[in-house]
Each structure stands twice: as C-alpha cells, then as structure tokens.
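Hi W., the zinc ion complex you wanted:
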Amino acid sequence: MEATYPLARVFTDKTNNLNVFFDESPTANQFVQLRDIGKCVVEFCELDFSQCLEEIKKLNTETVSSNFEEIKNRFWYIVDLLKDKHPYVQFFLNSQMVLTFYGSDKSKEEQVDSIIHMFYYYVDLQNTYRIALEVCLSDEVLNEYTLPERLLLFGNNFPTFNRYMLRTRYGIAPMSYGEFDKSRVIRYSDPDEVDMKKVLADTHRDSQTPINMTNYFVIQTLEEMLYLEFMEMLKRGIRIKRCALCDKYFVLADKRKREYCDRVYKGNRTCKQIGAKLKFNKSVEGDQFLQEFQTIYNRMYSRYYRIDAWDSDRLTNKLSEEEFKQWSYLASQLRLAYKEGHITGKQMIEKLSKSTEYEKE
Ligand SMILES: [Zn+2]
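Structure:
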C-alpha cells in the first residue's frame, strides 16, 4: 500500500516523546519532538472549531461547479484558522484537503461535501476522545474498576477502537540506548550537502542493534495520529487529572503529585503559578465536597457504562446516551462554578443530587 504526501512519520521510543517528521513532500519536511504523550489528545478535545464551522455555514455550495476555486480557497483559509492552535491538527486537515482535491476521482460536489463532512467528523471525534480519556485514564472516575476493565468497557461502547489499524514501515533511525537521538536528525535544504557516509557511520556507532533499524508509523490523517497517541498513553499507563483551578484535564507526565495545569489562567499567569499561592486547594483529595461530588458522579457513570453487560446483548444502560450527555454536562458546569467560587460546596452537592433524582432505581 503506497502512502501519498503529505504524511507524518512517527517514531516512538522509551521516553514519553513522540518523534515526528511532518513530510510535506519527499524533500521537504519538518522534525518535531512532541513532549508528554497525551497532551495533544487533551488539547484536541479542547480545540474550538466554532469559527471554522461558522465559516463553513457561510459557504455558497449551491453551485459548486461555477465557484469551485473560490470554495477551495475558502477551505484553505478555514483550515489555516487552526494554525498554531494545536501542534498537529492543521497539518493533517491540510493533508486531507490535498488528498481530496488532488488525489481522488471524486466529482467537485463530492470533494466539497467530503471536506465539510471532515470538519463535522472531527467535532464528533472530540466528544469520543473526551469520553475515552475520562473512561480509560482519569483517576477520579470509575475508580472501582481496574484499567483493563475500563478499557474493555470503553471498547464495548466504541467497537471501532478495537479494530482500528495503523500502517508501519521499517527504516534506519538514530536510536541510541532506546532513545531517539534528535541531535542526529539531518536537516538540509540540498541533499548533496549531506555527507551520507559519515551520518550513517555516526548513527551506527551508538547503536545496540546491527544496523539501527527501527519501525515507525506512517500517519496520514488526524484520526490516525490521535489514535496512535491515545494508544501510547494506554500502553504507558499515562493518566490524566482535573486541574484544581480551571477544572480542565491535564496529563500527568510523571509520578510527581500535581494539582494544577500549565494553562494560562488569568493575565499571563498559569494555573500552576496561581495555585501554588492558594491557601486551600480544590482538588478531590483535599476537598470534602468534591469527594462527595465524585461519589455521586461515579454512581451515575457506572450506571451508564454498565460493566456487567460486557459479554451479553442485554441492554443495561439505564440512561440514554442523550440523557447521560446532558447530565454530565450539567455536572461539570456545577463543579466549575464551585471551583470558581460562584456557588458553595453545599449548593453544588444539593443541585447535583437533585439532578440525579429522576434516575432513582
Ligand atoms: Zn488549570
């Protein structure tokens, strides 16, 4: 199976970095080391697509054939709105547009439809990944179950995750003692400038294998990239936690105890900087109301994701998906209002308990 450009080559190693070559073409690429595996998945879930969707609604797609060029230019503009907002989202959406416009036999109408569909698809996928992160990797949710149980539970609700495939290739790479040595990545504008013999000799010298061969992933779509990063989180047991200040999820990069994320909270100060000076912290460990909140939340969660229905066709979800979505949205609004000091802990619990009443068994 041949992959067409643009594509990304992703090398994993024993560290929590993803080593990525974003290849625009066979001769033009950019090397980036994405630190803290999982961070880009969390950031994807928070990415605001609303401006893109508004621009799409404004498009005149009634007469595609007569203003095809104009629509195409608009699409490039819309994708560029996401530039610098995420480490790789814009690259892959761009790549999907190149494939659609230059690499397919689709009619103009179908090409336009498929790009519009792409945006809505990724907005949907944000929801799926929000659930994936929470069900599989948050310490605060479903904590009566083990991680493998939670993964099975998630796979049961989203079966496409279990069947997903990624493409891999083998290549020579500067791997040294299990780590990708980024100092040896060759950067050049003209291949003739590179002393290939010397580069290969250097690469070989630190190698623990005969010719330093390794496998890497060939990634062409945003969906594949998110899947790869998420699976690497699972493989490494990387967990997520809610920030005690802004209430958003962040990746726990190592074993150190952390309550706050690195996002900018107010002015140019981050949650971590502000949090360090706070006397009381609203983390689950240190706050009686949040603990109570979590107990109620987990009860609803378990009721929705019925673990006892693993291998049967019995319908045991007592809540519909829509009901559960609405309820968990309300719950997170309450938790945020409490963390921001707009309501008291007692009010939060009262309102939350009330919201679950219609669900009493
Ligand atoms: Zn925060």
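The mean pLDDT is 88.

W.
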